[in-house]
Amino acid sequence: MQKISASAPAEKTVGGPQLAEELRIQSEKCIECKLCRKECHFLRKYGSPKHIADTFDPASPQSQMMPFECSLCQLCAAVCPVKINPAAMFLEMRREAVNRGAQDFSDYGVIMNYEKRGTSRRYSYYGLPESCDTVLFPGCTLPGTRPDKVKALFEHLQQTIPSLGIVLDCCTKPSHDLGREKHFQAMFSEMKDYLLQHRVKNVLVACPNCYRVFKQYGERLQVKTVYEHLATTSLPRTANIAGAVTVHDPCGTRNEEQIHAVIRRLATEKSLTIQEMKHHGVRSICCGEGGSVGCVNPDFSKGWGIRRKGEADGVRILTYCAGCANFLGRLNPTSHILDLLFEPEATLAGTVKISKAPWTYLNRLRLKSYFKKHINAAATRERTFTGEEQSRGLMLKRMVILLALVAVIVAVRMSGATQYLEQEKLRALIAGYGALAPVIYMLSYAVAPSLFLPGLPLTIVGGILFGPLWGVVYTIISATVGACVAFLISRYIGRDWIESKLRSSRWKKLDEMVENHGWKAVAFTRVIPLFPFNLLNYAFGLTRVKFLHYALATFVCMLPACIAYIVFSSSLLNVLRGQITPEFLIGIALIIGVSVMPAVYKKIKARRAGR
Ligand code: SF4
Ligand code: SF4
Ligand code: SF4
Fold first, then answer.
1. Domain extent at residue 95
2. Is 458 part of a structural domain of the chain?
3. 293 lines ligand 1 (CB under 6 A)
């Protein structure tokens, strides 16, 4: 079993030692036979693993984004005649990009929220009866989509394991695959340590990805799928049924041939016949969900699924991963093996009830209450651990900002400088310069976005110097002019240069948004800051949005944030002098209102897309 090592130092030429080793292996051993490229559109796009290893530059944005388009499915390793594993190199490349701070995960909001919720206090539950040495770990998707099956499975397993415990939690595989190694390590180790401390020895999983995580990192925890356990004990007493299915083996257990065999045995024991697809067992193909590729390259993700549908050729797919069942179920009749074992007739008739979001979340909460009531647990917990490093880092950052603010206020007051901070005196001084002061201010603001200078300090200066009314007027006009200048540079002067800077999938998404929604895409991205403001101005210049639409939408939609920050900063000097004014409080309330909008948006989006 592999123990996760500490993260690699970020500034080495070829990245950390594990990445360097993977690059060396691909470079020295890959004979460029093209067998993997025949199977994989990602490799057809980027070249042979040797070529990728030889040309990899950990500091270049292209090299940093590229591995996130690989599904990490390991089909390349399965077909490779020299037995190397390119997927291991792509995972190390992802980790390297994360360690260098090159991946901000803004494309992965849905999947990260999904994982965060799975590990949260609200959704997680550990119930361990007296002398419990075995737990059922059903994962996240199965309890959400099929809570009744999880209950039925648990009750059935209790017949052979009376002291069976339950763990409702997420194995954090999404973080693992996204290269968030430190977070994954912190989360998984904490769960593993808790289980080991409570004398749990065996983990029965229903999800192949959970299987892989526990097998690779679980150390003394023995992992087995519930399907293997059922095959060696007893099956639920349900009817046998004639019919044909084809089995989709998930990538997570690609190399576990005993599991492939067990699934087929269970299906045939229910009297089904199996028609194998071209790719199955160790040579199975990804359903399309692997590596969260759909978040950055939806075409690659769809491509895998469509290929699967083609190979199934209309026959019902039987799989043992609830994630794969969801994904493939949109393309082809697909069932989970637990559907078959507990409801065989309904499974073949395609009438099994599969919940969708937002009911999946409700199901998980209900399932948690069910287990809380039905297990006579000697030890219980809800998970409060959130990944120490993240929260500590965030907390530290907040503390530093707060301390800096307090230090400035104390220093200003102690130095006697408050006499110079009288708002009215300062504004009278500025008024003495006539039109010159606003003109200089507006000109500075108008060039700042093109030079990638942050607008917030200028906005704060505007509020202090010109007050809430004229501050807003000057700032919104000049900020709009600034955004338009960058837009026009991009559209008419520096197109090639800007294009070379904006190659990542995020910017392609912006293009798609404009194609589909026109000026509304501008309005939306001004209100919800999904992209960095200064780059966004340039990026819109590359799209087909009309200049007038862009300018108007920018003006109108930047107004709320402009008002919030100007009202807030117009009273900042008073605050430094120890006076809390109504403007300050209104400003704070407005800033909070503007700041929570992205979070609200993400929440709504996650709920809609959730499983
Ligand atoms: S892991 Fe899968 S997607 Fe990635 S290179 Fe290998 S075959 Fe292609
Ligand atoms: S199958 Fe193996 S040897 Fe052939 S190109 Fe792919 S990685 Fe290289
Ligand atoms: S592998 Fe299973 S438990 Fe882990 S994140 Fe995916 S669905 Fe959740």
1. 17-104
2. yes
3. no
Residues 604, 528: contact at Cβ < 8 Å? no
> Is residue 414 a part of any domain in this protein?
no
Q: Which ligand is nearest to the CA of 39?
A: 1
For ligand 2, is residue 86 a contact (CB within 6 Å)? yes
The predicted pLDDT at position 2 comes to 40
Distance 289 CA to ligand 3 centre (A): 12
Instruction: Kindly state the average pLDDT of the residues 281-289.
Output: 96
Q: Are residues 464 and 377 in the same domain?
A: no
Cross-strand partners of 318: 247, 335
Site to probe by mutation for ligand 2, drawn from 50, 80, 90 as the one with most ligand atoms within 8 Å of Cβ, is 80
Which protein residue has the closest C-alpha to ligand 2 atom 3? 30
Cα 18 to Cα 8, 142, 471, 611, distances in angstroms = 8, 34, 53, 34
What is the SS3 assignment for 75-143?
HHHHHCCCCCCHHHHHHHHHHHHHHCCCCCCHHHHHHHHHHHHHCCCCCCEEEEECCCCEEEECCCHHH
Please work out whether the CB of residue 539 comes within 6 Å of at least one atom of ligand 2: no
222 occurs within a structural domain: yes
Query: Domain boundary at 349, 377, 406, which?
Result: 349
330 and 378 fall within a common domain: no
The answer to whether residue 251 sits within a structural domain is yes
Residue 342 CA, chain-centre distance (Å), reads 33
| ipTM over the 0.90 cut-off | no
Does ligand 1 have an atom closer than 6 angstroms to the CB of 49? no
Ligand 2 site, residue 32, Cβ cutoff 6 A: yes
Distance (Å, rounded) from C-alpha 98 to C-alpha 32? 28
Is 490 found in the same domain as 343? Answer: no
pLDDT-derived band at 168, boundaries 50, 70, 90: very high
Question: Which is the closest atom of ligand 3 to the Cα of 169?
Answer: 3
Q: Give residue 9's pLDDT.
A: 36
Does any ligand 3 atom lie closer than 6 A to the CB of residue 139?
Answer: yes
The larger pLDDT score, comparing residue 496 to residue 224, is at: 224
pLDDT tier, 3 (very low <50, low <70, confident <90, very high otherwise): very low
Q: What is the mean pLDDT of the chain?
A: 87
Q: Is 188 in the pocket of ligand 1 (CB under 6 A)?
A: no
* Number of domains composing the chain: 4
Which residue has the CA at smallest separation from atom 8 of ligand 1? 40
Please check whether residues 339 and 362 belong to one and the same domain: no
149-163, 372-386, 524-538 — most confident range: 149-163
CATH number for the domain spanning 248: value is 3.40.50
